Amino acid sequence: MAIPWLDHSAYTVEEASDLRRLVYNPPGKRIDRKKGRERLRLISPPFSIRRRPDVCVEAGRSLATFGPVFAQIYGQGEAPMTITSLRRRDHAADADALLGSVGFARSGVEVAVVDADGRPLPPGEVGEIVCRGDVVTAGYWDNPRATAEALRDGWLYTCDMGSFDRHGYLTLRDRSKDVIISGGSNIYPREVEEVLLRHADVAEVCVTGQPDPE
């Protein structure tokens, strides 16, 4: 935030950890929304990037503090912040389902949700998120094995699990490697975390699976 050109820029990137420090103030202190916006450099049109897929609860708290001034972008190093986006006006929709999504595919990028065999899934079905386009990496340097695992038939397999709604908005469920399998069912830690975060006394939470003999 100390880079001089930010004073003259119309866009600012703010990581989740820094945004949280503005939203969660020390006990007994009230946030000054005007000063908070100045610190974020939210100059028209405002812009925000979340480094990690966040839960609807966190987005709601941010909106309650600063108002509908954010845009979110979902991406990863292999497709730099260009997979999907949730626009500023989408944040003002006052719908938890929409607010909890990461938006729709950005221009020049094709996004799909597929099953374990790489077949596209219909809206509402959870699968792995894949994408393709000119922005997608050509592979990992000097690592053909990792390249073959991530890039298949021109698609980048993100290892993120998600689903589309009927309007084309994508919602992240969890990382495929974090899914907990119990009794033949898939449990997504992110969904459990979102419920726990709704409690007023819970500031942060992390759900992990533990081996069970049964």
What labels describe this entry?
214 residues; ligase; 3-stranded antiparallel β-sheet; medium-chain fatty acid-CoA ligase activity; 10 strands; alpha+beta; 5-stranded antiparallel β-sheet
Structure report:
The chain is of the alpha+beta class and 214 residues long. The chain has helices at 16-23, 33-40, 56-66, 88-91, 96-99, 144-150, 189-197; strands spanning 72-76, 79-86, 104-105, 109-114, 127-133, 151-152, 155-164, 170-175, 180-182, 185-187. The chain has a domain at 179-214. It contains seven helices and ten strands. The strands form three sheets. Strands 4, 5, 6, 7 and 8 form a five-stranded antiparallel β-sheet that branches. It is globular, with a radius of gyration of 19 Å. The N and C termini lie far apart (51 Å).
Write the layout of secondary structure elements.
Elements: H1 16-23, H2 33-40, H3 56-66, E1 72-76, E2 79-86, H4 88-91, H5 96-99, E3 104-105, E4 109-114, E5 127-133, H6 144-150, E6 151-152, E7 155-164, E8 170-175, E9 180-182, E10 185-187, H7 189-197
Antiparallel strand pairs: 1-2, 2-3, 4-5, 5-7, 6-7, 7-8, 9-10
The pLDDT mean sits at: 74
Terminus-to-terminus distance:
51 Å
Largest sheet: 5 strands, antiparallel
Low-confidence parts? 1-7, 37-55
Supply the helix-strand structural class.
alpha+beta
Sheet-strand content, in percent, reads 15-25%
- Which bin fits the share of residues in helices? 10-25%
Tally of strands: 10
Rounded to the nearest angstrom, the radius of gyration is: 19 Å
